[in-house]
Each structure stands twice: as structure tokens, then as C-alpha cells.
Amino acid sequence: MNAISNLFCNGDLDSGLRHQLGKIKNAVEAWKEDELLAQPEQDVIDSLTERFRVEAPVLDRGGLTQEPVSEADIPVREFGEQFKVRQTVVTLVVPFTGERDLFTMRPNQWTTSAPRAIVGSSHLKIHWTGQSVDPAAIKQSLDNQLNEIEKWLGWISAQVNTYNGQAAALIAQEVKARKSRILANRDLEAAIGFPIKKRSDASTYSIPVTRKKLDVSRRPAPAGAAPFRPEPVLAEAHYEEAIRVLLNSRNQLERSPSTTAHMGEEAIRDMLLLNLNGQFEGKAAGEVFNGKGKTDILIRVEDRHVFIGECKFWKGPKTITDTLDQLLGYLVWRDTKAALLLFIRRGNPTEIIAKSLEKIRSHSSFKREGTHSDEFGERYNFVFHANGDESREIKLAFLPFALLTPTS
Fold it and tell me: Is the alpha carbon torsion for 386, 37, 35, 367 positive or negative?
């Protein structure tokens, strides 16, 4: 029988977790500048969060097995003398997930009597030894050992969960701060005023319009490109403004079912375009060729498509998959913001929306949930990646329109 050792006694968990937090800043600083700028910010954060995440061990009691009962000579001490006694040995093998090393660490909360076990790469072995022939008593003893180990793991898990939250917040803070410093330094080179050669990646852009001025934020070039060159894209505030116009238009349409009852896709789209052009003068167009096809709503400034929307009537779950494929086919690598407008003419809107969300999340280009906003009504935000390039992120707003046909 392998030697059994005390658990949770060979290191201080709090010190170990604090040491990990201290390594985060250096890990962010270790990224090359162009590499950091070229990756989507959330991908950088997610990568580092996964790297620094600690997974507390969890016992799989449902998967435990019992080894064949055996006998062993167990050392005992009586009256100051040690000798061996032949005893019965019952061994349980308990799988676990999580980090093996945490079985050696002492949590902040602990008792003087630590549990004992043999720790393998993905399992624990706990033993009962004695001369009893009472199965119920043996089982109770083994259950008590498992319960004691799980109590200690609960203390470990509480500390680890706190650390993971702190690590995630610190990583996001450090990544955002470093990206801001890099971009500020690159702009500073050109602003100091000395006759030095301006870096190509310090260029700034502007998008002129007459009514609602569209400014530009930097977005990364594809991964591996060097040096980083910022590209003009629709600023977040103006993307939100376009969504706000569409949501307000939706509210008007939903309140006028008799008006929309006989309107087709094209007529509804033209009404939306009219409202968009009221905000982005002359910049919103329909049925414009782009990428592999033509899209329903397009806001184009100079040679850049800064907003693309696709309108579809619900005809079943396949509507969503086909429309996403179509929309992503329209998007070229400079396009970063899009919207899917789903017109629901009949059926239960709640059920249809739920089916649509399921299809969106299962799409091969889906990356993650976006930031949700209910300020202007029901909307759903997602982040997709461009066809063939996972580092090119596309913000997608899903806007359902409940244009139910009125009953007579």
C-alpha cells in the first residue's frame, strides 16, 4: 500500500494566490506592442484570464470505485513499542477535477486535524484499515473521510473564487491601460513638433458627414500584421445611434399593425432607410453590392462600410442561419458593425426569438455574448468573427420586430 500523507499542509494558499496576482502586470507588459494592438482586446483579456485562472479541485463522488479488499501489515504502537499487525484494507478511488497541487495548500480556514489520502494525477485514494467485519461501519468511516476532504475543498474553493474575480478584473484593467499608453505614445511622436519621421501606424482618420458627424476609433489589423496600423471604423456612439434609430422605427411599426400588414420586406426597409438618412444624411442606402452579395441597409462613408444591416421575415429557424451566412458573406474585413433585423409576421414572438437566439449562438462564427442594453427596447448583442479570420471581430445586434398581422 502506498504511503498516505496529510492533505492541505505543505504551503499557504493565500500567499500562492497573491504571488499569482503579482505576475499579471508583467504578463501584460510581455506582449509585443503590435501584437497587443493587433488582437481584439477581449481576446487578449480572455487569453490571459484563462492563463491565470485557478480551478479548485472537485471530487466526483458519483464516479468513485472500490478496489478489491486486501490485507496489509499496518504499523501500530502500543505501550511504547511499535510492531505490525495484519489488517483488512478497503480502498476507494475518487476521481477529481481541478488542480492537483491545491490538495497540498492550506486555506485561510482550517483545523488542526487535516484529512489524509494518496493524491494521484486525477484521483484520490482513501483507505479504511482495521479488523471490523461490519460493512455499514466501514462505509460510514469512508463517507466521513470524503465529507472531511470536501469541507476543506470548500474552504479552498471560496478563496480561489475570490482570486479568480480579482485576477479577471486586474487583467482587464492592465490590458486596457497598456493599450491606451501605447496608442498615446504613438500619437505623441507626431505631436511633439520635431522634424522626425512620422510612424505609419500613428495616422489618424476622420469621416466627414453633414448632419451626424461620424468619428472614428482605432481597431486592430489582422493578427500577425506589423507594424500595427489603425483603421477607420464607426465610433461606438454612432453605432448605438444607428441602432437607436432602428429601434425607434421598430416601435412605430409595431404600434401600427394595420399599416405594416401589407408591407413587404422592401417597403419596410425603405421606411427604415428614410429614418436613418434623417440622422446620417445621405449615407444610408439599400441593396448596395458588398462582399459576396448585396445587403439591405448600408451606411457607407468614403470607401468604408461602417454599418451593415440585413432584413428578413421569419420563416423558421433556418432563416437565422441563412441570414447570418449571407450577412457575414457581405462583410469584408474592414466592416466591424452589423445588425440582423427579423420581421415576425405571425406566430408567438417570444418562442420565435428564443429559437433565433439558439441559432445565433450555435453559428460557427459566433465568439461570445456582447454587452446587452435595454435602454431603447429589446435587443440582443453578440460578437462574431469574420469569415476566415478569428481576430477580426464583428459586433452584431439582433433586433426582432413583432409586426403581427391584426385579426379582423
Answer: negative
